[in-house]
Amino acid sequence: MKRALDVLYGAAAWVAALFMIGILVMILLSVTGRLFDFHVRGTDAYAGYCMAAAAFLAMAHTFKRGEHIRVMLLLDFAGPRTRHWLDIWSHVAGLLCAALLAWFSIRLAWQSFTFHDISQGNDATPLWIPQIGMALGSAIFLIAMAESLLITLRGGHDRRRDPGSEPARSE
Length: 171
Fold this sequence. Notes:
This protein is mainly α. 71% of the residues lie in helices and 0% in strands. It has one domain (2-159). It has helices at 2-35, 43-57, 59-64, 73-77, 80-114, 128-153. Helix 1 runs antiparallel to helix 6 (128-153), helix 2 runs parallel beside helix 6 (128-153) and helix 5 (80-114) runs antiparallel to helix 6.
């Protein structure tokens, strides 16, 4: 099961990378249009849609690699037992936040589809299409949070996001 979930997180990250390329294409198209005096409608909106999809689809992969910001101040001073309970509490809180994000993201995309909501720009894009990236990314992030909580509850440690498993980065 862990292997299948890792494939899911990796696939979402690759799709996020494709959306980052989409941002680049939209920006280059806009810049080129200004240089050669033509305009492609909706490039700004589509760059924004690609940015949102890239951010949400990369969340689970980023979390499982331990790249999300994690404040260790309290955990560093806690004993092993307290640290374990604080870790469980933070996972439960994160899971609840991820569940709310996924619920409302999926609900937003569904409502946009049901009400035939379109963008305000000249391109009149049906909004459920770009909202799919947000909904899918937040649902995959919810799965990653649930997996990490289960590992923590079993007394294990998710090595993929263990801050002590790799040297500290100072960026």
